[in-house]
Design brief:
Layout: H1 14-33, E1 39-44, H2 50-56, E2 65-71, H3 74-86, E3 93-97, E4 112-117, H4 129-134, E5 140-151, H5 157-170, E6 173-180, E7 186-193
């Protein structure tokens, strides 16, 4: 994957545009459902954060939000910081150029009200996906939200998407919303965590 060019695909690929729209809608829905007070968001492999920035720009609870966005692609992080500045969100959205696979890099930002797994599950080895989901109780508050997406076909999406939904269910994440962009596009889900929050294990590798 050429991460220096991926963002340009949003200008020409309808399924990516639809995925972004749905993810932003689900971020907005999760924010609406959060109790009054501060809202903490964590975005794993955040890229340039266009999902969060776009969702927050006109959302009535934007001032309640603090977000940690982790990615180790410097160009994407720089682009995200510029977009955050333009949207007037610089004091709330913190982009960190760091390895999102290492639990220690989430210290101080978890457990979060909302965890985003957007645009990267399909790039993981199949055997690493259940482990990623099993680590989410370290990152998500009880009653908190996870928004995820995955291509329905690429890299064995036909079996992986149903498996992802099953793994969430087994780990006490209740599926609140599920939507696809098209039969050959993306699945987008929003789940609510009803399990036991685990302490952050700073030595843990969340996924490979």
């Amino acid at each position: 994957m050429n991460w220096s060019q991926w963002h340009k695909d949003y200008e020409s690929i309808p399924s990516l545009q639809a995925r972004l729209r749905i993810v932003r809608e689900q971020i907005g829905a999760a924010l609406n459902a959060c109790p009054p007070g501060p809202i903490q968001i964590v975005s794993i492999c955040a890229g340039d954060g266009r999902d969060i920035v776009g969702a927050l720009e006109k959302h009535p609870r934007r001032d309640d939000v603090s977000a940690l966005l982790l990615d180790n692609h410097a160009e994407s992080v720089a682009r995200g910081r510029a977009a955050t500045q333009a949207a007037g969100l610089r004091s709330q959205l913190r982009f960190v150029d760091a390895d999102a696979t290492l639990a220690k890099n989430y210290h101080g930002a978890v457990p979060a009200d909302l965890v985003l797994l957007s645009g990267f599950l399909g790039h993981l080895r199949h055997e690493d996906v259940p482990g990623m989901i099993e680590n989410l109780p370290m990152l998500c508050k009880k009653g908190g939200w996870v928004i995820w997406n995955r291509h329905l076909l690429i890299h064995d999406g036909r079996t992986q998407v149903p498996a992802i939904r099953k793994w969430f269910h087994q780990l006490f994440f209740e599926e609140i919303h599920y939507e696809t962009t098209a039969a050959d596009g993306f699945a987008v889900g929003r789940v609510c965590f009803h399990g036991r929050v685990l302490p952050l294990d700073a030595g843990r590798v969340l996924f490979e």
